[in-house]
Amino acid sequence: MHTAAPYSANPEGATAPAGAYVDPLPAIDWNAVDHACWWVPPGALSLATVPAFEAQAVAVRRRLSQLEYLHLVETGLVLEAFFVERLALLAERTPDADARSAYLREIREEAGHSLMFVELLRRSGAEPTIPRAGVRFARTLARRLTPGSALFWAMTIIGEELPARLTRAVEAGPDDVTMSRVVVAMARVHGADEAGHAAFARERCEEATARLPAWRRAAWSTVLAAWLAAFERYLLYPPAALYVRAGLVPGATWHARARTNPARRALAARLTGSTVSFLCRIGWSLREPRQK
Ligand SMILES: [Fe+2]
Ligand SMILES: [Fe+2]
User: Fold this and answer.
1) Which site from 110, 121, 143, 227 is most exposed, i.e. has the minimal number of CB atoms within 10 Å?
2) How far is the CA of 80 from the centre of ligand 1 (A)?
3) Which position has the higher pLDDT, 250 or 143?
4) 260-292: per-residue pLDDT in tens?
């Protein structure tokens, strides 16, 4: 049974000097990857509280929890690849040594996360579910963004904060099921690093947004709102193929059940709420957080 441990950047509880970088890959016992455990707590699943899902065998529900965690991991891998590419350009272009160091430290941490994701995907034996055509389209759009622009940082905040909050649900874990020790250790590393990344991105975004003319902020708000809606939909409502792999058929029916699940919508509002509030406060026009 997993008991939530205090916040620590160090995956398996080893001590390290404050602020020291800890490579997560060798610090995690990868042989402990276990399919008999939950990888996402039952209450944080897309179909949590849906009666037809709660009536399924525990093996099916647990399989969905593993696949939904892998969905988060695959999404993280794609986002981090985009982000590292852009951070490398920023590091190369800045004349400021402190800023260059900050960008390079973030690249190092994101590389550590991606290495964990790759290792878990390898150990899970699961086939990828992410649509490659969607990745190509997103990459084309991402490359049109000017690194360091207000829109770049605003999109980065959304891309970092939503998965980080979902990851925190894994890190906290419930006391009434056995959570995977590996997954909890991964979530702990990721949660600690992402808190720093989000603070950094918020600072950069606020500065860049303050320099934007109002007409441009209004125009770019439309793009930002579209990104938020698309990313929230993809991250929180996995594709039908994922449900099929969990043994839930037809996948489209289960996907539709997740889309209309009030518990999932409430979780989505909680995950996006403070991000949307922050962006609105600094001058972006987005829908206000939904009231429950
Ligand atoms: Fe990351
Ligand atoms: Fe990050």
Assistant:
1) 143
2) 6
3) 250
4) 999 999 999 999 999 999 999 999 999 755 444
CA 174 to ligand 2 center in whole angstroms:
25
pLDDT at 66: 96
Instruction: Find residue 179's DSSP bridge partners.
Output: 38
Query: Ligand 2 centre and the CA of 110: distance in Å?
Result: 6
Residues with CB under 5 A from ligand 1 (ion): 110, 113
Rounded Cα gap, residues 159 and 292, in angstroms: 23
Q: Domain boundaries in the chain?
A: 37-281
* Dihedral, CA of residue 119, residue 124, residue 125 and residue 129, to nearest 10: -90
Q: What is the pLDDT of residues 41-98, one digit of tens each?
A: 999 999 999 999 999 999 999 999 999 999 999 999 999 999 999 999 999 999 999 9
From the CA of 116, which ligand is nearest?
1
Homologous superfamily of domain range 37-281? Ribonucleotide Reductase, subunit A (1.10.620.20)
CA of 193 to the centre of ligand 1 (A): 7
Q: Please give the distance, rounded to the nearest whole angstrom, from the Cα atom of residue 104 to the centre of ligand 1.
A: 14
